[in-house]
Specification:
By secondary structure, this protein is an alpha/beta fold. The chain has 15 helices and 12 strands. The chain has 2 domains: 116 residues, Leucine Dehydrogenase, chain A, domain 1 (Rossmann fold); 196 residues, 3-Layer(aba) Sandwich (Rossmann fold), CATH 3.40.50.720. The structure holds nicotinamide-adenine-dinucleotide. The site of nicotinamide-adenine-dinucleotide (NAD) has 24 residues, from helix 6 and helix 7.
Length: 363
């Protein structure tokens, strides 16, 4: 006899239960070849907002895991930033270079529309502004549009400002002052956010070291901000006060941690800790203050939120500035509890969701 109520780690409901999602929508369309998954993690605080990415996943299980992990991350990012948004994310399975068509994207848009605003989408990996325009033709539940289309435009400058605020709060904790003047800072990745961040750091008089996968980009940024360029793998060995990961995830791992000489890690990249439960505590053991990634890179989400729920540039920047105070709170809380900052930030987000959930329990 087949048991139908056993949830294993690999079963679909097993995974959904593990991450505690409210709803997961599987979207399929034979005509266009659309296979997409929309993960709605938690809508206690508001509609689930998060981007759609298109990726050539090697298996459906990999796609499901990605959407579950990413949508849960959005819940925490919104909650800790004080936003009235829930966490969601969508993935479209397939090669963006060969499979993306107007029809496929519009079909996906119809699935988003069917959710009636419970999920609001945005641009993510392998999606362009043009793609979002197609999705927008079928649903109004699209955010992060260009300013020319009435949207909030490029989130990167706001993300950089929030990261800068988080870095200063962490510096205050580590060095007793939040001034970055004369501080030696290694920036990994000088793309959209990294470049705006460098502007702030240069203005404050930091000594900058940087690297980027694209050598020309690194050289250009170095010339503009008076920084030194180092090789991709050398960035971890620099004699610096602060390491700022602004490129990829999982750069805090077994190999890099033992090489870092800094006292602070604060950058905009998502999912910096290869394994939160291992590398979060390992940073504490090494005496390194870690500014939680999903907290200090929330500026972009704050920007998008203003498009959905109202606000202007000034209110967005004021709200993003609060990342400084929240980072301070989280770092103190971690210290008091004897935990690590990522765990303390996650708990703070969960506590807000639980408290507001109770507020909403009566009409
Ligand atoms: P981007 O693609 O513009 O910049 C990333 C840069 O990192 C690129 O210049 C790339 O060449 C470089 N890079 C890639 N691999 C590298 C490596 N191994 N070593 C050094 N450099 C490498 O992206 P972005 O928008 O600036 O975002 C940077 C990070 O911040 C990403 O992890 C992104 O998910 C996260 N993030 C961005 C925003 C935003 O508003 N753009 C918001 C939240 C989080």
């Amino acid at each position: 006899m087949v048991e139908t109520n056993v949830l294993t780690e690999s079963s679909v409901f097993g995974q959904i239960a593990e991450y505690q999602h409210e709803q997961v929508v599987f979207c399929h369309d034979h005509e266009t070849g659309l296979r997409a998954i929309i993960g709605i993690h938690n809508t206690v605080l508001g509609p689930a907002l998060g981007g759609t990415r298109m990726w050539h996943y090697t298996s459906e299980a990999e796609a499901l895991n990605d959407v579950l992990r990413l949508s849960r991350g959005m819940t925490y990012k919104a909650a800790i930033s004080g936003l009235n948004l829930g966490g969601g994310k969508a993935v479209i399975i397939g090669d963006a270079k060969t499979m993306k068509t107007e029809a496929l994207l519009r079909k996906f848009g119809r699935f988003v529309q069917n959710l009636n605003g419970k999920y609001i989408t945005a641009e993510d990996v392998n999606m362009t502004t043009k793609d979002m325009e197609y999705i927008r033709m079928e649903t109004k539940h699209v955010s992060g549009l260009p300013e020319s289309m009435g949207g909030s435009g490029d989130p990167s400058p706001v993300t950089a400002y929030g990261t800068y605020m988080g870095m200063k709060a962490a510096a205050k904790k580590a060095f007793g002052s939040d001034s970055l003047a004369g501080k030696r800072i290694a920036v990994q990745g000088v793309g959209h956010v990294g470049t705006y961040l460098l502007e702030y750091l240069q203005k404050e008089g930091a000594q900058l070291v940087l690297t980027d996968y694209y050598e020309d980009r690194a050289l250009e940024a170095a010339a503009r901000f008076g920084a030194k360029v180092v090789g991709l793998n050398e960035i971890y060995d620099q004699d610096v006060d602060i390491y700022s990961p602004c490129a990829l995830g999982a750069t805090l791992n077994d190999d890099t941690l033992r090489r870092l000489k800094c006292q602070v890690v604060a950058g905009c990249a998502n999912n910096q800790l290869a394994d939160e439960n291992v590398h979060g505590p390992a940073l504490v053991e090494r005496g390194i203050i870690y500014a939680p990634d999903f907290l200090i890179n929330a500026g972009g989400l704050i920007n998008v939120c203003s498009e959905v729920q109202g606000g202007n540039r000034q209110s967005v920047m004021t709200q993003t500035e609060r990342i400084y105070d929240i980072t301070t709170q989280v770092l103190n809380k971690a210290e008091q509890e004897g935990s690590h900052p990522q765990a303390a930030a996650t708990r703070q987000a969960e506590e807000r969701i639980a408290a507001i959930g109770k507020v909403k329990s009566t009409y």
